[in-house]
Specification:
The radius of gyration is 19 Å and the shape is globular. The chain has two domains: 192 residues, NAD(P)-binding Rossmann-like Domain (Rossmann fold), CATH 3.40.50; 92 residues. The chain is built from eleven helices and 16 strands. By secondary structure, the chain is α/β, with parallel strands linked by helices. Helix content is 42%, strand content 17%. The chain starts with 8 loop residues before the first strand and ends with a helix.
């Protein structure tokens, strides 16, 4: 389908940190009946009173095809994945879910001609990337999750060039949001710290205080996703994953900013195994291409993000 027209959307992994907020945004933009949320959880365990829900294991291509065919789906947001820290505990399962799930979506897109959004991640970068990751920086990831995202970017390029599949992706930085807790990523500390601060509890941060990583408030990530999917296909030079501009701050700078607003909050820094993954990633990302090709820019800085996180979690 083209960039406009009636959207009939399927989201995989819809009950995750990104999925729930993307679901809200897509329902607001296209109507609640235009979007089907899917995840591996059973329907009885999901409060689906506000959205259409289908249980879907993305490894089950036949079930996925039935949902896509029966609902005449013309756009899939494929979010189902195991993330970095979780994936390191079970790399075989990480590869299976992240790669076989994507392959199933791509093969069905080849058959049914629907568009795909499939996110990539800053985890595609490795320790050789330097402090600022550019669009064309080398991709030598340190985690199985990162490896699957590099392979996913290559598959996106292949299916676009060889089969004409309209697939688009973003290299999401660490995403900070208050509506849904994150699920096993290396940047989760930047969400957990707010929950503890608002609850008047001390927090033990699992990275060093000088750890600097690319971050983004979730509203900006959703804005980028929708903006990319609205962009004319012929304007896009990247298929697997655009770099985005990012907020960049150390864990200590985040703590200090929160203490400006909650002075009694206490945090100590005790790095664990996730520090190694954090050390392999860049301090910030150069999102020049996303600005040039589809005019993306951030709405939130560190201060405004902290304000809205604390206000929202305090309600």
């Amino acid at each position: 389908m083209g960039e406009s027209g009636n959207r009939r959307i399927l989201i995989t992994g819809a009950l995750g940190q990104i999925g729930m907020e993307l679901l809200d945004a897509l329902q607001t933009k296209f109507g609640s009946q235009s979007v089907i949320a899917s995840d591996i959880r059973n329907p009885q365990d999901v409060d689906d009173s506000n959205f259409r829900y289908e249980r879907l294991d993305v490894l089950d291509s036949e079930q996925m095809e039935n949902i896509i065919r029966d609902n005449d789906i013309n756009e899939v947001y494929h979010l189902a994945a195991l993330l970095s820290a979780t994936g390191e505990k079970n790399p075989q399962l990480c590869w299976k879910i992240n790669m076989d799930g994507l392959m199933n979506v791509l093969e069905l897109a080849r058959k049914y001609k629907f568009r795909i959004f499939a996110p990539s991640s800053i985890a595609v970068f490795g320790a050789d990337v330097g402090k600022i990751a550019k669009q064309e920086s080398p991709l030598n990831p340190a985690t199985m999750y990162g490896i699957t995202k590099v392979a996913g970017e290559l598959m996106a390029d292949y299916y676009h060039s060889a089969h004409g599949v309209d697939i688009r992706g973003l290299r999401y930085p660490g995403l900070i949001s208050w509506k849904v807790m994150p699920g096993g990523g290396t940047t989760d500390y930047a969400v957990e710290i707010f929950h503890k601060a608002v609850a008047s509890e001390a927090y033990t941060c699992f990275v060093r205080e000088d750890t600097k990583l690319p971050m983004m408030y979730m509203d900006d990530a959703i804005k980028a996703t929708l903006q990319l999917m609205d962009a004319p296909s012929d304007k896009l030079s990247v298929r697997g994953g655009y770099n985005l501009p990012s907020l960049t701050f150390t864990a200590k700078e985040l703590y200090d900013k929160i203490r400006e607003k909650i002075p009694d909050f206490k945090c100590e820094f005790k790095p664990d195994h996730r520090q190694e993954y954090a050390d392999s990633w860049p301090d910030e990302t150069d999102g020049t291409l996303s600005k040039e090709e589809w005019d993306f820019s951030l709405d939130f800085d560190l201060d405004s993000m902290c304000d809205v996180m604390i206000k929202s979690l305090s309600q």
